[in-house]
Design goal:
By secondary structure, the chain is mainly alpha-helical. Helix content is about 85%, strand content about 0%.
Length: about 110
């Protein structure tokens, strides 16, 4: 047997191996890029979260303390009126008391 008999099958297998290696590299390249992106986001997560919060505050500014207190009171009045409506048939005196509390301006 000569050396050429061994070289020809290897020579025929080289293009197949190159195509398989090329396909695996083409498949792994986006995964490697995605892994790098995820790693960078995890490393710079506090910075990214700060930028996101700043953008949210820029678009939707925070309400003032007076506005927040007024909204909280309004939600309380709505809750008392809802409770009064629920109790109006079974306990009318309790419902009247709840409506009185909702109407009082504290």
């Amino acid at each position: 047997m000569s050396v050429l008999a061994i070289a020809f099958p290897v020579e025929a297998a080289v293009p197949v191996a190159q195509s398989l290696i090329g396909a695996s590299v083409a498949f792994m390249r986006p995964l490697l890029g995605l892994g790098v992106l995820v790693t960078l986001l995890m490393v710079f997560k506090p910075l990214v979260m700060g930028i996101v919060r700043a953008a949210i505050v820029l678009v939707v500014p925070r309400k003032s303390l007076e506005q927040r207190v007024r909204q909280h009171r309004f939600n309380g009045v709505k809750m008392l009126n809802r409770m009064a409506n629920d109790y109006s048939r079974s306990q009318p005196s309790f419902a009247a008391e709840l409506r009185n509390l909702a109407a009082s301006d504290r």
